[in-house]
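Intended use. Records like the one below are meant for learning the mapping from a protein sequence to its folded structure. Do not use them to infer anything beyond what is encoded.
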Amino acid sequence: MGGLPAFYIALLKRVQSVAVETKARQAQADARVNLAQENQRQKVGVGQETARSKARVSAILAGIEAEKQKIEAVRNRLRAAWLIDNFDRVFEPFAATLGNHPAGHVTVVTGSGGNH
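Structure written out for the chain above:
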């Protein structure tokens, strides 16, 4: 009968050993899951920050383009004003040459089908 208690003690030790191993494996699995979750959170955070940065860059580029268009509009207005202010100076030399080439018949090309 002396063998039976030793068997139970050995069985109890084995059960305790398996329980410890199972807890250790569970702790390792939990650690891997936690690490994977943290990596995923970091990736999501990086992705979100990348999207925010791209949006900021797009907004800045759109602002630059708008400013370029404003500059071009001002430039065109200034050119037109200059041309109006200097009309005589620009076209007088051209008009003076017209007298050198008298024409008996003049044809005007309008580019709009000749209806005007």
